[in-house]
Amino acid sequence: MSIKEKILEGREDIEKFFIKIIGREIFVPELDVFSSRCGCVGIMITVRGLFTDDVEIFQKQLVKKLEDLAKSFDINADWIFIRTLPGSDDVINIGVRELCNLCKEEYSYKKPRPDLISLKF
Amino acid sequence: MFSIPHPGDFESLKVIVNEIKKIKKYDKRARKERFEIYLGFSEFIGTGRATLHKPNFEELEEQIRYAKKNNLRMEVVINASCLGGTHLTANGISYINWIFNQLKNIGVECVALSDPYLVDLAKNNDLDVNVSCIALVDCLDKALFWDEKEVYAITLDSSINRHFDIIQEIKDNVNCKLKILVNEACLYKCPMRTQHFNFFSHANAQNIPALDDYYYNKCINLRIKNKELIIKSPFIRPEDLAHYEKMIDIFKISGRSHPIGWIKRVLLAYLKRKWDGNLMELLDCPRELQHFFYLDNKILNSAIKKWKTCNKRCSGCNFCKDLAEKALKVKN
Ligand SMILES: [Zn+2]
Prior knowledge:
The structure holds two protein chains of two kinds. Chain A has helices at about 5-20, 50-55, 60-70, 100-105; strands at about 25-35, 40-50, 80-85, 90-100, 115-120. By secondary structure, chain A is α+β, with helices and mostly antiparallel strands. Chain A has one domain (about 5-120). A five-stranded antiparallel sheet of chain A has the order 1-2-4-3-5. The model of chain A has no long low-confidence stretch (mean pLDDT about 95). By secondary structure, chain B is α/β, with parallel strands linked by helices. Helices cover about 40% and strands about 10% of the residues of chain B. Chain B has 13 helices and ten strands. In chain B, the strands form two sheets. An eight-stranded parallel β-barrel of chain B has the order 1-2-3-4-5-6-7-8, surrounded by four helices. Chain B has a two-stranded antiparallel ribbon with strand order 9-10. In chain B, α3 (about 55-70) links the parallel β2 (about 35-40) and β3 (about 70-75). The two termini of chain B are about 40 Å apart. The chains are: A alpha+beta, B alpha/beta. The interface of A and B includes residues 36, 87, 114 and 115 of A. The structure holds zinc ion. Zinc ion binds near residues 36, 38, 40, 100 and 103 of chain A. Chain A: It holds the Pfam family DUF5402. Chain B: This is Peptidase U32. Chain B: It comes from Methanocaldococcus vulcanius (strain ATCC 700851 / DSM 12094 / M7) (Methanococcus vulcanius).
């Protein structure tokens, strides 16, 4: 499968996964595979319609799903997190990251920043 | 005393408290040190920085109790640079009075403010006031204006961090404490400072769906294009705190919107007054550039001597430019 097909499939797959597991419409407008200047590599997923409660309930399945997705891109899922809208329960991003040493030092916490919640760290 | 950035959620406060406890166990100097913690409170009035968590009064009360139990002063930052005129309306006045009264009731000792009218209201509500760096106090006349209001402290505009003559003159003539930002590292005399603070003030308080932070992106680009700007930016190295000790009462660490692991690193470096390696890893404003530049802290060892006596007429001096060539490298 080409990289392009893999990304296209990944986005669709995650969207379907949420709809199936949560039982209502969740919109995944974008899935990005990235590399950072620091040496981190990862996947960033934008979500709409997902809330922290949903994630809490299905955390185990979600982590497993994201680990598999990362593996398909040859990325180690060192850190899996969600980003919420400040002051709300709306999840707006889900991130999977193979951390560089500096970012490991900065982000390896249950709640490294008030708008980030680690599901795996 | 050290002033520590607190992102605002209880989890982060616990990490900070644990870190202080830990270091007090093995570091003699830290054992004698006193600490205060500051967090943004962006309800209606807004603050001058991004706020990633907005605690309500109950949560804040709980955190204050916890902080006091651990011997920490807690300061609530309400330092919007622009209030859009709302504070001078009848509704605005009673709302702000209500907020200050609530803060007082839940045990807040001190608020950081930048508007003189708000300072008067806070004093009326028996709150101590720290004049925020957003008030841009960069000379004696401004400092005297605030000192006459019997404020607890003035946080100096970081643009004068390396103007030792001005700081000394302020010190000699005010009664309040002086605070200095050690690692904010904004551009020296930043031409966009007011606009950037105004943008944050409104974006925070009113959830404006801004497309992009123009000022931040501009600021980063300027430094990539001209790395001398990084050296000229008025940060204070952990090793150089001693040069400020006689004039400054409180060293304030900047960076409440960064991850807690970063805050921990910076706090430890300044407490130990020592940092080996890339100084960019301690600087707040251009934090993303820690991945791009390596600023060799050792090479800056004696720069403070020059900065202390420098007349700040950069066109006739290449000191910072030469230093940038030597100390600052693009990471590979
Ligand atoms: Zn990284």
